[in-house]
């Protein structure tokens, strides 16, 4: 038996693939390489190149590899860009998830771990986000992830009395950083760590967008979680589903306390040895002061914990980026 990892050639998906392999769960990558990197797929791991919108291809992959379940990481994940490209976002994230659910039903595959997002919460009005915090997504991306959660819920209800009732959980990511393998690094042009790293490599000074927020040092506070911990949570969820154990419909993979952008910048100076003072730019529209989530539910069920310090997050990400030079 195996687990199909959609988007398994991407930054997060490739880490999930490695964690599954280390746990003996036989990963299979399905990726169209629109943002993934072929070299991120480990040697010896089966690789099906194609789109999650291709139902025949998805169903064939499930049948050919006798899949025990799907870890659905693939999707269009750029919240800001999704405002300009809503239809593309919905096609990839909503229609793509629908196609995967159809293929799973046809192939008799009952287990799915869905990569959701903190974006389902939008700008919460509470200092600490829990799973039940009101969902007010502020972008088509966030909306598409919330719709994905709804589709899983509804399909589970619809198949409850069938031969293969759907079992599922959604893991809500926050700011995923670092690297657990020196050959895999974050290639996103929109995430803080790669933005800072690319600026330093190009000899530019990194920028902070606003330093007058209502936080301890005036900069935004967010959850930053290591990609290795994220991958481990996926493996724990897959094992729980495959064993038929009880599982929550969604988990917040949050840090519980958060880090400010200035704290991240200070860590970058310490780790890289490149002394710089960040430029201060204007606030970005809609950026809240603080968004931090508790990970208590995931700690209870998925062995979720913060295994890396902020310096280790920066160091592993920086080293992986350097190894790609």
Tell me about this structure:
- With 325 residues, the protein is an alpha/beta fold.
- It has two domains: 2-174 and 224-252, NAD(P)-binding Rossmann-like Domain (Rossmann fold, 3-Layer(aba) Sandwich); 177-223 and 255-323, Alpha-Beta Complex (UDP-galactose 4-epimerase, domain 1), CATH 3.90.25.
- It is built from ten helices and 14 strands.
- The strands form four sheets. The protein has a seven-stranded parallel beta sheet with strand order 3-2-1-4-5-6-11, sandwiched between helices. A three-stranded mixed beta sheet has the order 12-9-14. Strands 7-10 form a two-stranded parallel ribbon.
- Helix 2 (55-64) packs parallel to helix 4 and helix 8 crosses helix 10.
CATH superfamily annotation of the largest domain:
NAD(P)-binding Rossmann-like Domain
Strand content: 15-25%
Overall helicity: 25-40%
Mean pLDDT: 95
**Uncertain runs:** none
User: What letter string, H or E per element, gives the SSE order?
Assistant: EHEEHEHHEHEEHEEEHEEHEEHH
Taking strands numbered 1, 2, ... along the chain, how are they ordered across the largest sheet? 3-2-1-4-5-6-11
* Known CATH architecture of the largest domain: 3-Layer(aba) Sandwich
CATH class of the largest domain: Alpha Beta
Total domains: 2
Largest sheet entry: 7 strands, parallel
InterPro entries: Epimerase_deHydtase, NAD(P)-bd_dom_sf, UDP_G4E
GO molecular function, one term: UDP-glucose 4-epimerase activity
Pathway: Carbohydrate metabolism; galactose metabolism
Catalytic activity: UDP-alpha-D-glucose = UDP-alpha-D-galactose
């Amino acid at each position: 038996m195996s687990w199909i990892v959609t988007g398994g050639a991407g930054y997060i998906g490739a880490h999930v693939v490695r964690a599954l392999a280390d746990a003996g769960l036989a990963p299979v990558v399905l990726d169209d390489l629109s943002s993934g990197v072929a070299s991120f797929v480990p040697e010896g791991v089966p690789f099906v190149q194609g789109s999650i919108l291709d139902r025949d291809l998805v169903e064939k992959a499930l049948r050919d590899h006798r899949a025990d379940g799907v870890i659905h990481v693939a999707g269009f994940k750029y919240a800001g860009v999704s405002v300009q490209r809503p239809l593309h976002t919905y096609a990839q994230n909503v229609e793509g998830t629908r196609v995967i659910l159809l293929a799973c039903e046809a192939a008799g595959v009952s287990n799915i771990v869905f990569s959701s997002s903190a974006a389902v919460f939008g700008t919460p009005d509470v200092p600490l986000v829990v799973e039940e915090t009101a969902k007010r997504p502020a972008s088509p991306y966030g909306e598409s992830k919330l719709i994905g959660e709804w589709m899983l819920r509804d399909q589970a209800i619809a198949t409850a009395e069938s031969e293969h009732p759907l079992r599922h959980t959604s893991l809500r990511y926050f700011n995923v950083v670092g690297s657990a393998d020196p050959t895999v690094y974050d290639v996103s042009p929109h995430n803080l760590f790669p933005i800072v790293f690319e600026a330093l490599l190009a000899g530019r000074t990194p920028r902070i967008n606003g330093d007058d927020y209502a936080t301890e040092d005036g900069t935004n506070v967010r959850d930053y979680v290591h990609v290795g911990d994220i991958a481990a949570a996926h493996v724990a969820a897959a094992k729980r589903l495959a064993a038929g154990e009880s599982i929550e419909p969604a988990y917040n993979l949050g840090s519980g306390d958060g880090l400010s952008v200035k704290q991240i910048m200070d860590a970058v100076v310490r780790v890289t040895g490149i002394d710089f003072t960040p430029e201060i730019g204007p606030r970005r529209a809609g950026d809240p002061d603080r968004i931090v989530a508790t990970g208590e539910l995931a700690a209870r069920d998925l062995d979720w914990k913060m295994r890396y310090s902020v310096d280790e997050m920066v160091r592993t990400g920086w080293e992986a980026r350097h190894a790609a030079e």
